[in-house]
Amino acid sequence: MNRRSEINLKLTQVLDGVILGLLFWLAHIIRFEAGVRIEFLGEIPTFDRFFWLLAVIVPVSPIVLEFQGFYNHPLRKKPGEPLKQVVLATIWLALIFGLFVIFLKLNAESRSVLLLFLGLAVIGLLIRDWCWRKTVADAARRNGRRERVALAGTPADMDGILERMTHDQRLQILVVARIDLSRDTPEKLTRIFREKAVERVLFAADHVHFGTVEEAIHVCETEGVEAWLSADFMHPTISRLSVEHFGPNPMLVFRTTPENGWSMWLKEWTDRVGAAIILLLTLPLWVVAAIGIRIASPEGPIIFQQRRSGRYGKQFIMYKFRTMHPDAEARRSELEAANEMESGPAFKLQNDPRVFRFGSLLRKTSIDELPQLWNILRGDMSLVGPRPLPVYEVEQIEDSAQRRRLSVKPGLTCLWQVSGRSQITNFDEWVQLDLEYIDNWSLWLDWKILAKTVPVVIAGVGAR
C-alpha cells in the first residue's frame, strides 16, 4: 500500500467511526422521541447514559470492519460482498457490547436503541461504500482526475509491473509515458517530465544496471517528481516485503511473521485480559489441583518449572502443575526407546510410567496447563501459538526451516492441539501445522482455535 492509499484508508476508517457515532446518536433520538409519543415502547434515559457505548463504537467499529475485509479492494468486490462484511461486523460489534456488559458490568440502558443502531449502521455503511466506489469510478472515467504516471525500465519489466497491478490501482493512474532505461538518456527523461506533466515514475528496473537507475532517480529529484523503485529484483519465497526506516536509513524489510498493527495490539490485549479472566474463573481448580498433588505425590513441588524456548528462541521459565514423580527428568533417558514421535526432538509417550494417577487426571482435563496463564500475563506466551518446547529439544532441531515456529510467541493452545494431539506422531507434521498458523494468522483464526479448544479440553481428546 502506498502512502497516499494508506492515508486515504485511515481517513476512511475515521469517517466510518464518525458516521457510526452519528447513527448511534440518531438511533437514540428516534427511540427517545418514539418513547415519548408511543406508550408501549416506554421511555428511555437521556443520551448521557449511553456515552460508554459511543466510546466503544467510534474507535472499535473501523477495526472490526477491517477484520472483515471491508476495506480490501473495494472496487473488485462481488455483488453482495459488502453487505455480508457489514452484517458480520455488526454481529461482532454486538458481541463486543455483550462482553462489556458481562465482564465490566456496564449497563445497556435500551436494547431497542442498540438494535435500531445496528440496522442503521448496516444501511449507513453500505450507502457510504456505494458513494465512495461511485466517486472513484467516475474519477477514473475522467482522465484529468487520474494520476499521471511514467513507467521506467526495460520493456518486459514495464509490462510485468502493469500486469501485477490490481484493478483498483490501474483505475487510479494514467500511464502517460514509457521510458526504456537501456536506451533513453537523462535529457529525454527531463523532456518527458515537462511535456507530459508526470506526477510519479514507477521504476521497473530488474534488468537495468543500478547506476543507470540511480542516474534516472537523480533526474526525478531535480524535477521534483516522485520516484518509486520496484523491489522485484528480490524474490523472497515466504516473506512479505515492506519499507521502513531505521533511524534516517530506509530499509527493505522481509517479514514472515504477522505485522505489528491493530490486529497484533488487539491480540496482546486479548491475551492479557483473557488470561486474567480465565485465571480468576479457574481459581477453585487451582486449589483442588494443589491439594491433590500434595496428597498424591508429597515429595515434590506443586508447580513444575522448566526452561522453554520462546519467541526467537528467548528462554523463559514455563509453569505447570506437576503431574510426574520428582525423578521424572532423570528417568527420561531410559524411556527414549519408547518415544512415540516418529521424527524430530520432541518426546511423547501416551502411557508414561512417570505420571502419577492424580497427575494423569490433571493431564486428561488439561488442568495441569493452567499455571501457564501466569506466563501469558508476564508476556512470555500467548493464548494461541505454537506450543513451547524445552530448550534441549529446540537445540536438537536440525532443519533450519522448522525453527521458524519460534518467530512468534508460543501459546497455550494451537492448531496441533485442536487437530488431535494423540493422532499426530510426526514432528514434521506438527511443525507444518505451526507454520500454517503463522502464515495464515488472523484474529479470526485465533478465535476459531480458542473455540475449538473448549470442546477438546472438555472431552479430553488427545491429552497426554
Report on this model:
Helix 3 (81-103) runs antiparallel to helix 4 (111-141), helix 7 (186-196) runs parallel beside helix 8 (210-223) and helix 10 (283-296) runs antiparallel to helix 12 (357-364). Helix content is 52%, strand content 12%. The protein is built from 17 helices and 10 strands. The chain folds into 3 domains: 3-141, no CATH class; 143-233, AF0625-like (Rossmann fold), CATH 3.40.50; 262-459, no CATH class. It has a 4-stranded parallel sheet. A two-stranded antiparallel sheet has the order 5-6. The chain is an alpha/beta fold and 464 residues long.
What would the keywords be for this entry?
two-stranded antiparallel ribbon; flat; 464 residues; 52% helix; alpha/beta; 17 helices
Which secondary structure elements does this structure contain, and how are they paired or packed?
Elements: H1 3-37, H2 51-67, H3 81-103, H4 111-141, E1 147-153, H5 155-164, H6 167-172, E2 173-180, H7 186-196, E3 200-204, H8 210-223, E4 226-229, E5 240-246, E6 249-255, H9 262-281, H10 283-296, E7 303-309, E8 315-321, H11 328-335, H12 357-364, H13 372-378, E9 382-384, H14 391-394, E10 411-413, H15 415-418, H16 427-439, H17 443-459
Helix pairs in contact: 1-2, 1-4, 2-3, 3-4, 7-8, 9-13, 10-12
